[in-house]
Design a protein that fits this description.
This protein has about 290 residues and is mostly beta strands. Helix content is about 10%, strand content about 40%. The protein has one domain: TolB, C-terminal domain (Neuraminidase), CATH 2.120.10. A hairpin with a 6-residue loop joins β10 and β11. The protein starts with a helix and ends in a 5-residue tail after the last strand. It binds calcium ion (4 copies).
């Protein structure tokens, strides 16, 4: 009887151990907005961070892309070419109530919110090339921040700075600037683009082609500890950090389409989230830890 009791206890502890391990490992939690052309043109979708519950938020005959959650998780900024060129729009998190913020005949795209939700930084070619601009979240008070060709602005979690990359003349490199456009400083030196902040504001994940293939890298914001996170002959794109800091969502150009993946923030455990014959990309993590 005593032997049986011991055996039962061993089994019980083993089960508890297994259960704890499974809980802590590690299924990414939260929700991810992303884009897909699965209905014939680009639309914005949402899914759970494990790839489940994929739902379509926009429905149109034109292109909607670059989803960016407002910091409170109530709205999504995005770009749409419904008036013939790309403009910045904001909609509710359920896909309703579209409000147009920019009005011109040029490209306006890649919005990113200030952490207080009061401003949106974005890319526009309204002045002849692609430069970075900032506006109030109602579309007013537009100011130009960069005067070299630049792309992919990302506002820092502490509000103070904006990461972006420059291109067109020489190498494509990641830069940081103050939120008013001053103090533009180069962060990467061997090629880098598509920067995204860790939620603690200490690190930036980005893409680089420096070894002849595009891979994910991470760097501290003082330029130290640059580390390669992926080594894959396929192209990677558009990284986005989870609000709890544990995960990075991104896209991979699989044969023949782009798919959304997630991995640990150290580069391990790459898991595919979308599996269809269309392109899927531009993931942006719901910003509130639920
Ligand atoms: Ca459509
Ligand atoms: Ca426009
Ligand atoms: Ca227009
Ligand atoms: Ca790669």
């Amino acid at each position: 009887m005593r032997t049986l009791t011991v055996l039962l206890l061993v089994c019980l502890f083993a089960l508890v151990g297994c259960t704890l391990d499974v809980d802590e490992t590690d299924v990414p939690e939260g929700r991810i907005a992303f884009t897909s052309n699965r209905d014939g043109d680009w639309e914005i979708f949402m899914m759970d961070a494990d790839g489940g519950n994929q739902t379509q938020l926009t429905f149109s005959d034109y292109r909607n892309g670059s989803p960016a959650w407002s910091p409170d998780g109530n709205r999504i900024a995005f770009s749409s070419d419904r008036d013939g060129d790309f403009e910045i729009f904001v909609m509710d998190a359920d896909g309703g109530n579209h409000i147009q913020l920019t009005f011109n005949d040029d490209w306006d795209t890649l919005p990113s919110w200030s952490p207080d939700g009061n401003q949106i930084v974005f890319v526009s070619d309204r002045d002849g090339n692609k430069y970075i601009y900032v506006m109030d979240a109602d579309g007013s008070n537009i100011r130009q921040l960069t005067t070299e060709r630049s792309w992919n602005p990302a506002w820092s979690p502490d509000s103070s700075s904006i990461a972006f990359h420059t291109f067109g003349t020489g190498d494509t490199e990641v830069f940081l600037m103050d939120a008013n456009g001053s103090n533009q400083t180069q962060l990467t030196t061997e090629g880098g683009y598509s920067p995204a902040w860790s939620p603690d504001g200490e690190h930036i994940v980005f893409i680089s082609d420096r070894v002849g293939q595009s891979d994910l890298y991470v760097i501290d914001i003082d330029g130290s500890n640059e580390t390669q996170l992926s080594n894959d002959t396929r192209n990677e794109g558009s990284p986005a950090w989870s609000p709890d800091g544990r995960w990075i969502a991104f896209s991979i150009e699989t044969d023949p389409n782009w798919k959304v993946f997630v991995m640990d923030s150290n580069g391990s455990n790459r898991t595919q989230l979308t599996s269809n014959e269309y392109d899927n990309g531009s993931p942006d993590w719901y910003p509130v830890v639920e």
